[in-house]
Amino acid sequence: MNNSDKTVFVIGAGLAGIAASIRLRKLGFIVTVIEKNSTYGGKLDEFNEQGFRFDKGPSLFTSPESVDELFLLCDKNPRDYFNYKSHPVSCSYYFKDKSVLHFNTDKQKLKEELTVKLGTESAFKTLTYLERSKETYQKIGEFFIDRPQAGLKDIFRKELLIRYPHFLTSKLRKTLHQYNLTNLRNEKLIQIFDRYATYNGSSPFKMSGLYSMVPHLEQNTGTYFPEKGMRSIVDSLYKLAVEEGVEFRFEQNIQKLMKSDNGFNLVINGQLYNADKVVCAIDHLHFYRDILSDSKLFNYYSKYERSTSGFVFYWGIKKGIPEAGLHNIFFSENYKKEFEELFKEKKLPADPTIYLHVSSVVNKADAPEGAQNWFVMINTPAGYVPDSNEINQIRKKIAERLQMQFNIDVLSEIIFEKYWSAKQIESETGSVAGALYGASSNGKISALKRHGNRIKKIPGLYFCGGTVHPGGGIPLVLKSAKIVSELIGHER
Ligand SMILES: Cc1cc2nc3c(=O)[nH]c(=O)nc-3n(C[C@H](O)[C@H](O)[C@H](O)COP(=O)(O)OP(=O)(O)OC[C@H]3O[C@@H](n4cnc5c(N)ncnc54)[C@H](O)[C@@H]3O)c2cc1C
Question: Cα(492) to centroid of ligand 1, in Å?
């Protein structure tokens, strides 16, 4: 069947929507992307101020081949559009006793660092942990991530049956924290590997030990940074999409989507449009509540606990700190308490873990000479909007922590400041409660409960993006777009 007369409307021009549009174009569809904002990119936004450039959202970039794949699909050389460098230190971890561990993706260097600072046993345990992480990813992770979500009907499928020995292990019974406790035995290492729960906005004290496969995608496969910043990921993909013939319509307000006899009717800016298929590349809760107006589906999926949101300061800093790496974490004293505050008490952590990202460390043009662009983030409960008093408190706590570590008077170094909170994330990107990754992965089988890439009730409607299967974060969002295009492709 030829698709050249078939239309697909994609809702949302974030990374997921752009990636899906390119893939669907390659299948021959006439593709229109509808975006409420005046530009594409969603959370991958950027801004410039007083000679500083800031990426507003994501900063950690792994699996660059998932971006390259889209250019190769269109017979283009990715390097003509998008360039990145490998960044060997995945993260520098700072502890309250002022010690620091630099995690290098080069195993020999990591071994040396850990041997000197924590001893041979800890170094050995860490490398063994990373080997197991790789094994779990290869044996079960790839299977679940690269395909539509497995459901009850798949339980006896051969491809799944052969994976049970790897799936039904103690990792599944344990939480990530319990798994780390058993396998690492060192408090600092446990906190470092617990932190991977935050990669999808969850708690290591609730999510399954199977997520111990996540560090594989950073420590074993490497960390990278785009030469022109994170925004260049969507800049280059948008260019590719336009070249391939995708039509983008900005500042479009979708009022309604209705099923028609052979497709869908959409009301956009008061006008009626028809589409054969629709891809929802926005938060599915927002879609059910505000576009499909289906309270049943909205209530059903709202039951799942939201992932965390974040509060980000963007600071132009006069001189900064020479020790700053691209990614720096300043851990709280009591991680369990911090996650209880985030998920149980739903309040700002009294002693928050602080993430400092300084892209000007690798991309000098991101800050004036001698200065640094600081992206400083703490996790917050979804929907939590700090008042001005609390914002002052957060600023003060960050300054005190950095003063303690580097003896720097941060507040006197700030040339200008902007911030992003749950409320702005929601209004700018449509993410309900500003949750960064949709539903959290808190719970032993949360991955199987995540919203799928289509629903039985509405054939012809597909879902991709950070709130649905296989998960949030750049590589998974790109995979969701691929799964959707494969599902649509198979239907032909
Ligand atoms: C502060 C922060 C830090 C993060 N850090 C990382 C990181 O380090 N690494 C990582 O991999 N990931 C990170 N993430 C997550 C990552 O940004 C997301 O998983 C990813 O960008 C989601 O892409 P998306 O296309 O699914 O959604 P979005 O980027 O949210 O795009 C959705 C698009 O749809 C549009 N839209 C919404 N509603 C409508 C509507 N009604 N009509 C039309 N258009 C609409 C929005 O305007 C937006 O353009 C971070 C996110 C944030 C906010």
Answer: 30
* Residue 326 to residues 87, 93, 102, 201, 237, Cα–Cα distance (Å): 8, 12, 11, 21, 24
Nearest CA to ligand 1 atom 2: 57
In contact, 240 and 78? CB cutoff 8 Å: no
66 lines ligand 1 (CB under 6 A): no
**Strand runs (DSSP E) across 150-262, as ranges?**
224-226, 247-249, 254-260
pTM: 0.96
User: How far apart (Å, rounded) are the C-alpha atoms in residues 474 and 399?
Assistant: 30
Residue found under tokens 């022109």 = 228
Nearest CA to ligand 1 atom 4: 58
Q: CA-to-CA distance for 92 and 110, rounded, in angstroms?
A: 12
- Domains along the sequence of the chain with CATH: 7-43+228-305+438-490 (3.50.50.60), 106-219 (no CATH)
Nearest Cα residue to atom 31 of ligand 1: 14
Residues of the chain with pLDDT under 70: 1-4, 150-164, 166-172, 492
Q: Which of 43, 55, 221, 238 to mutate to test the pocket of ligand 1 (most atoms within 8 A of CB)?
A: 43
pLDDT digits 0-9 by tens, 169-189: 666 679 999 999 999 999 999
Ligand 1 atom with least separation from CA of 474: 11
Q: pLDDT (tens digit, 9 = 90+) per residue, 450-484?
A: 999 999 999 999 999 999 999 999 999 999 999 99
Q: Which residue pairs from 473-477 have beta carbons closer than 8 angstroms and sit at least 24 positions apart in sequence?
A: 473/58, 473/199, 473/200, 473/437, 474/15, 474/58, 474/61, 474/62, 474/63, 474/66, 474/67, 474/233, 475/62, 475/63, 475/66, 475/217, 476/145, 477/14, 477/15, 477/16, 477/19
Ligand 1 centroid, distance to 14 Cα (angstroms): 6
> Is residue 481 within 8 Å of 16, Cβ to Cβ?
yes
CB 383 within 8 A of CB 309: yes
